[in-house]
Amino acid sequence: MKTILSSLATLSVAFLISACSQTSSPAPVGTTGVDYRNSRADVVVLSFFDMYCPQCQKDAKYVNQLHALTRQRGQGSKINFYAIGWNNTPLESEMYRKRFNVNYPVVPDKNRSIAHRFGTVKPPLLIALRKQGGQWKEFYRTHKVRGKSEIIYSKIKP
């Protein structure tokens, strides 16, 4: 029994060392500390998710499709996307970024300070903002992203 426990402990340590030493692709443009309010784009899209929300996980691919559509239409510099990890830690937000291949900033919002700026936020939620008088103002909000990339794009394009 003692030999089995010793072997398990050795294997666990070896696994942790190998997992920590692997390099992965870097997070897009500073995942932690990124603030959408510093964007120079015409439109900012905030996609609120919770790593443990099944619907958020399903919708991740559709938000990615909307992001890809804006880039295909030449609006990549005019529309910036940010995934906001509602009640998620930096680790959970990074797991979400990797698992769902999110190639725009993923920002943890463990204390929901970003979410509180927009009243009631229940993920999955997509909010679009435009700058008016030096302040970002919400002009579009939806909980339904699946299969609606074209419709949403037509409503958020600059």
List keywords for this structure.
4 helices; single chain; Glutaredoxin; alpha/beta; 158 residues; globular; 5-stranded mixed beta sheet
Write the layout of secondary structure elements.
Blueprint: H1 2-21, E1 43-49, H2 54-72, E2 79-86, H3 90-99, E3 106-109, E4 125-132, E5 135-142, H4 149-156
Parallel strand pairs: 1-2, 2-3
Antiparallel strand pairs: 1-4, 4-5
Helix pairs in contact: 2-4
Q: Tell me the radius of gyration.
A: 19 Å
Write down the overall geometry.
Answer: globular
CATH architecture: 3-Layer(aba) Sandwich
Q: Specify the biggest β-sheet.
A: 5 strands, mixed
Extended strand count: 5
The proportion of strand residues reads 15-25%
Separation of the first and last Cα atoms:
67 Å
Helix content range: 25-40%
The CATH topology corresponds to: Glutaredoxin
What does this structure look like?
By secondary structure, this protein is of the alpha/beta class. It has one domain: Glutaredoxin. The protein is built from four helices and five strands. The chain has helices at 2-21, 54-72, 90-99, 149-156, and strands at 43-49, 79-86, 106-109, 125-132, 135-142. A five-stranded mixed beta sheet has the order 3-2-1-4-5. Strand 1 (43-49), helix 2 (54-72) and strand 2 form a beta-alpha-beta unit. Helix 2 crosses helix 4 (149-156). The longest helix has 20 residues, at 2-21.
